[in-house]
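During the second year of the project, the team shifted from modelling isolated chains to modelling whole assemblies. The rationale, set out in the original proposal, was that interfaces cannot be judged from single-chain predictions alone. As a representative example for this report, we include one of the complexes processed in the last quarter. Its constituent sequences, exactly as entered into the pipeline, are reproduced here:
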Amino acid sequence: MRFLGGKLLHLVLVLLAVTALTFVLLDVLPVSVAHEIAGQGATPADVAAIREQLGLNDSVPVRYGRWLAGICRGDLGLSLYSKQPVSTAIASHLPVTLELLLLAQLFALTLALPIGIVSAWRADSKLHRLLGTLGFGLASVPSFALAVVLVYLFSLRLKWFPATGCTPLSEGVRVNLKGFVLPALSIALVEWVALMRVLRSDMIATLQEDFILLARARGLPDRRILLRHALRPSCFTMLTLFGVQTGNLIGGAVIVENLFALPGVGRLLLSSIFSQDFPMVQGCVLLIAVGYVTVNFVVDVCYGMLDPRVRREASGG
Amino acid sequence: MVKKRGITFWLSVAWIALVMTCAVGAGFLPLPAPDQIDWACLATSPDGVHLLGTDNVGRDIAARLFFGARVSLTVGVIAPCIGLVFGSLLGVAAGFYRGWPERVIVGAIDVFLAVPRLVFLLVAMFVFGSGLPAITLALGLLCVPSFARMARANTIRFAGREFVLAARATGADDVAIVLREILPNALMPMVAYALLVMGYVIVAEGGLGFLGLSVPAPAPSWGGMIAEGREVLERAPHVSMIPAAAMFLTVLSVNLIGDGLRGWMDDRESQL
Amino acid sequence: MANDHDRRVRHWTSVARGLLLLVLAMGGNVDRARAAVPEHSGTLTVAVDLEFRGFDPLKARYLQVGDRSVAMAIEERLFDVDAKGNLVPQLALAAKPSRDGKSWTIKLRKGVVFHDGTLFTADAVVAHWQRMLDPGNHFSGLDLIEPVQSVAGIDDHTVRFTLKHPWAAFKDMLSGPQWIGAYIPSPKAVREGTQDRAPVGTGPYIFKEWLTNDRLVVIRNPRYWRKGKPYLDRVVFRPVPDMQARYAGLRSGESDVIMTDRGTHILQAKEDRSLRVYSHDAAGPYTFILNTAKPPLDDVRVRRALAHAWNQDFLLKADYRGTLPLARDPFDGALSCGDTGYRDYDPALARKLIAAYGRKVELELLGTNTPRGREAGEIMQRLFKEIGVTLKLTPLAEGQMVKRVISGDYQMAGWRLTDFGDMGPYLDASLNSKSKLNYSRYRSPRMDELLNIQQTTIDGKARQKALCGVAKLINEDAVFLYGGGRRVHVIAKAGVEGISRIDHGVIRVSDIWLNGAASPPNRGN
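Output from the structure prediction step:
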């Protein structure tokens, strides 16, 4: 419980700091929100009135406090560009991003787990080296270049998957999923390599341990040893990395979302930055930061539960 | 067991050497300027006049590739160095002193990692201006947290070792211990890691270029070249694929070299 | 446009395809093979280039090209215009000018109902126009309708516009599909402040939902006053900013119709039998606007030098693959002026002019952050370098760029002149020294005089002479550099029928039906 409490406190402090940081960062930029709202042809008096009305004349800490209070009520302000509530826009973009990252990470794990296990099992073999080289190769392709090639092959040539957009779930799970295959693949094909490598090296280490040697001596089949005994103690680092990757993807799939015209958070963020829609940028940053921190918190906690050593260390130190 | 570095390692070294030569020698080679327009050749295939063909608006791809290599290499070399230096400072400080400095540094790193990278890059570019130095610095700062984490972990590992305790017993002060005992040991694996980061940074710069946010025109960047060539991908695939291949080979080489060096260091350490 | 032969070929291929489908479906739906009779069903997906701005004139301020198709699906104007520029009754039945030309009486259609149930009456027209004219509302297009003095309702279905002077271009302000003020919104939605993001009109389609960056959906208006229209159940408008993705989406089947200006795609689509390319030429070319108030552009020698250093021809060849016509005046054939003194590519002359100016010239060009904007900028950068002028490129989002131009914080910017049918009022607003919309900050008594003539005279000949004089003066003083004539392109799947014309880039979705054979009902969207 002390372990969890400490982590929670850390979580809250980090979130406060991130939001404060973005608030200040965006405050430095020379954009007059009041001018934006007043529109073209507004007189200085109009602008001043809006500044007054929005409380823009208050100091940064006061405004930050008010913004935080708003967040607690679920009010993130209004977009300067579309005039819709920021929370509404984010709510409509988030599911797309979540689906994309879940699918991408699912693909990545599907690739990383078996290949990692096999290449740890057959370390020092030709297969191991081949898989290693393949991994290196794929990890060296930028995902945007990969996306371009995937679209060319699978949408334009083979016509297996759509090249753009997402269909609402209401129109069928199959069509909906189909639209996510290529974007998720262009992320996963790059991401899985790191997962695989970490798993492989941990697994190789695990396979040297006494309890595995003992199991071998007892004549258990390889498959059982690998999956039942070696996998669990070998996947902690991979899980941590998995968490970090997932956290990064919440706002990090900007290019892929743009290339496939997916209305996700990354695209919302990029277009808001370009149109200097600051309430929207703040909202996105908040969401991404909360997501990132929360995912890592969850991973940390799981890690602690899976591996008692961590829990002891944390409460001891 | 000392692994022999295979042919791939040396091929990678050769490729990086080639890219470096091209980048350095870009100005001296008998090539047109990277923004020179050949009015008659739009997206033409490689031939005698244009070694690697021309892009959409008739600029020589070879020239753009070589000048673009300058951007990729500058960013790829300097940004990890920035990360290495500042990351080590922070990480060693955190790992050596523990207590509240560690808590502050670890917290700061967590905060930093939670800010979306794109927002950080764009704000940084706004503050430092757009241009190669600004992009390099921004990407360098982005590398700091991972180096800091690694340096901290290594420092903690070594701080309890016999040779550090022995040095302390002989009356060495903190600075001396960090500089003479811990840093040399902690640094080695980080240098190998820096090579992996180099690959990451080159791809990141490519992504910025792809979005049109990297170095301002007329300076070419590989990511930008890939993006420009997409429009003619089916008729003149070389416009996009040549820079894509260059970037792929460079990142792959850097990764392979990093992997080779790491293996070499592991061997050395196990021999110690 | 397709010639007869093409059409016949297409007809036969569609019949053949229909037969094939028939065989495949083993006696399935027979009438799918019939192409000639519009079907009353289906969903059309249209991909445009930018996220929609909104539809309240005061908030959105103007319609981007892609917004126009949406506006026209939901809202209606008093009049439509036919291909020859004649008024076609829409919400109004007839417009009659008074003898002195200073007032217009307009009869409105009876029995038309807004989507929210309110009746369309003179009040809706009057409220809409008074809202735009009220100086307190700071409507950005106010200078465009400056000659309108007042609007009043005579009875429930008659309104009268009172003008400050006779105004030849007034009709265009009632009918122009490109102008946000021409569309009549529901007064109730405007009052409630929802018009911008949930537009309500009298049009053939009813607004259903708008998900930012994803889709704007409209559905059939069952109470539409024009019987038998529209044909489609649903139209989905999708913003797909990445041009490559937009074209790929058309070819892989997610979109039925796309807008594009990429020459490569247009040429490719022309060779693709499953696609049809439509184009339309209009006034209002692409330009690079010069801020004549900012040094060194306040010196006419520098502007002239830039005009001679610029090579529009090459831009069209390289960036548009020859799919746009060369522009030498703002009218692009809509008004033929003969020689307007267009400044041809002549770097030697440009160098001489710069030498005469005598100082180093460094400039900044604002462009859109799109391949189009970047390529044009890079070509210009190189061309200016040849005459020793340094050009810095600043890529921005379109809205951001427009804002900087409006505020005067720029030297040069990529700029589309709005494509009015009658360019007179727009040119007056853009170049008159007294206008607030004069973003190039150009001041010339001669220009003011010419603009005044074309604004106030209704004599066609004199007006044309004045307008041509304006075009000449633009070239003489190098107020803009031209970046290609406004030819809009739309690419559609072969099964999309009824696209008759795409004036002003508007895809008139109320005329469109789907030829069933070409679009199987089980597709994604």
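The longest helix of chain C spans residues 4-24. The two ends of chain C are 28 Å apart (CA to CA).
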